[in-house]
Structure formats: structure tokens, C-alpha cells
Write a structure and sequence with these properties.
Radius of gyration: 20 Å
Mean pLDDT: 93
Number of domains: 1
Number of helices: 10
Structural class: mainly alpha
Distance between the termini: 59 Å
Strand content: 5-15%
Shape: globular
Largest sheet: 2 strands, antiparallel
Helix content: 55-70%
Low-confidence stretches: none
Order of helices and strands: HHEEHHHEEHHEEHHH
Length: about 280
């Protein structure tokens, strides 16, 4: 049993089924489930908590958020992780070009932190256009995203992305002959399931609009820092500043914690002043 798990990549079939001659990959199925789960949870939350945000508004908002996430994820990768950032800035049309030398190769490289920034900006624009409370909508989204995130990281695992560091633990998996942590699954559990449970249980105790959203950023970043200790550093960057522990993921997460904590303190003080 353990041996089968450790060699899962050598036996796993990435194509789930075919529609005619078109193969439907597990990777795509997992990302579809991620989106559908987030949408379902958003509607569940607004109904369960009698939110002032309607289902119609949420349905409209989803497209804005998804566009922001996709654009932000790709641009974030170019700015934070790609070693050819200046080239892409000089040739911006290449950022979303799925072809190379006339061959379709897809678009490789997405950043969750970039997706988060894109999500925030698209939510701000949507709320301004429709005269909505940004923080209320952000709270709902922050409760809806974590469960969907689980399927996103499972997709990364199935696609042999976000490879873990070498280990001698029995639950490790072989990647190119080396036993490694299944770090994408650690992320699915910590950054998805654990964050969701904490926020879902706390949501009725929230003291101000935006508290859940800010706690999401802080909790996600903390869990990401923990996960990064089991994840292989990005091969093109390695460890930063000559350290043996600082990765780009940790650096950005620390920045997010700092900014979210400052905002949390500022909003908390404003609430106390009103009281």
C-alpha cells in the first residue's frame, strides 16, 4: 500500500476520460471543481448568514473575480518569480501567449499571491461600479475560496507541480527517483481546509466588516510559510539573500501578513472609537 502511494506518479493516468478524441485531464477537472466549490460556498454563506449581498450580485461578481484572479496570477508570476521580467515588460503581448515557435505549449507560471492581488483589485472595481461595500463582499469571498483552493492544490499535486523537498518519511512520493514531501497536499490541508474551518467557525463573532477577509490573508500567509518549509524552492530563484530558508513565497507571505495586520489594527481602532 505504502509502496503504491510512493510510486503514484509512475502509475497515475493524467487523462480521466475522453470526449471523442479529446482527452479530459484530471488537472482540468480539479480546477473546475475548485471554481464550482467556491461558487457554491459563496451562495451557501449569503443564505446561511442572511447577507445583504444577493445571489444575483454574487453571480455577476464571480466573473469579475475570476478575471482578476487569472490576470493577477499570471502577472504576479512574471513580477515575482520569472527571471525574464524585464523582457516580458518590454514585450507585454507575450505574457499570455500560449505559443512558442509556432507550437501550442500553454501558459506556464501562475502565482497565488498575484491572484490574490488581482482578486482584491477586481473586487474594488466591482464594488465601485455597483456601489457595494467592498469589505462585506470580501468577507464572503474569503469564506468561499478556501474549500475550492483544496481542489486547486490537488490539481497541482496530480500535475507534479509544487514539488516537495527530499524526505525519508514513509508518506513521501518519488519524483524523478527522489522521495519527496507531497507538499501540494500539505498546502491543500493547511491553506485550504484548516483556514476554512477557522474562518467558518469564527465568522459569527466577527466585529467589523472586513475582519474575515483580513484574517484570511493573515491565516493563509501563515499556513503558506509553514508549507514552504516542505516545498522545494522555485528552481529559477532558489533561496533568497544567501539564506537556507527564505523563499519568495515566504517573503511575499510576510509582506501580506504585515499589510493585513496593519489594516486589521486600523479598522479595529476605528470600531473602538465608535463604541
Amino acid at each position: 500500500m505504502i509502496e503504491s502511494w510512493q510510486h503514484i506518479y509512475s502509475t497515475f493516468e493524467p487523462i480521466a476520460f475522453h470526449i471523442g478524441s479529446i482527452g479530459v485531464h484530471w488537472y482540468g477537472i480539479m480546477y473546475a471543481l475548485a471554481l464550482l466549490t467556491a461558487i457554491y460556498m459563496g451562495h451557501y454563506i449569503i443564505k446561511k448568514d442572511n447577507s445583504s449581498i444577493s445571489s444575483e450580485v454574487l453571480d455577476n461578481y464571480i466573473w469579475w473575480a475570476e478575471l482578476g484572479v487569472i490576470l493577477g496570477a499570471r502577472l504576479g508570476y512574471i513580477l515575482f518569480y520569472d527571471t525574464h521580467t524585464l523582457w516580458y515588460l518590454a514585450h507585454p503581448w507575450q505574457i499570455f501567449n500560449p505559443f512558442m515557435d509556432g507550437h501550442f505549449v500553454g501558459i506556464s507560471g501562475m502565482s497565488y499571491h498575484g491572484a490574490l492581488i488581482g482578486f482584491i483589485l477586481s473586487t474594488i472595481l466591482f464594488c465601485k461600479k455597483h456601489h457595494l461595500n467592498f469589505w462585506k463582499l470580501a468577507d464572503i469571498a474569503s469564506l468561499a475560496v478556501p474549500l475550492g483552493y483544496i481542489f486547486g492544490r490537488i490539481a497541482n499535486f496530480l500535475n507534479q507541480e509544487l514539488i516537495g523537498r527530499a524526505t525519508d518519511m514513509p508518506w513521501g512520493i518519488y519524483v524523478h527517483g527522489v522521495l519527496r514531501h507531497p507538499s501540494a497536499l500539505y498546502e491543500a490541508f493547511l491553506e485550504g481546509f484548516v483556514v476554512f474551518v477557522i474562518l467558518f467557525l469564527y465568522r459569527t463573532k466577527a466585529k467589523f466588516d472586513g475582519e474575515i477577509a483580513l484574517l484570511y490573508v493573515i491565516l493563509y500567509s501563515i499556513m503558506r510559510i509553514i508549507s514552504e518549509n516542505f516545498r522545494q524552492p522555485d528552481i529559477q530563484l532558489g533561496f533568497l539573500l544567501g539564506t537556507s530558508w527564505l523563499t519568495m513565497g515566504i517573503l511575499i507571505s510576510l509582506s501580506f501578513i504585515f499589510l493585513a495586520t496593519l489594516t486589521y489594527i486600523f479598522k479595529s481602532k476605528n470600531i473602538n472609537k465608535r463604541i
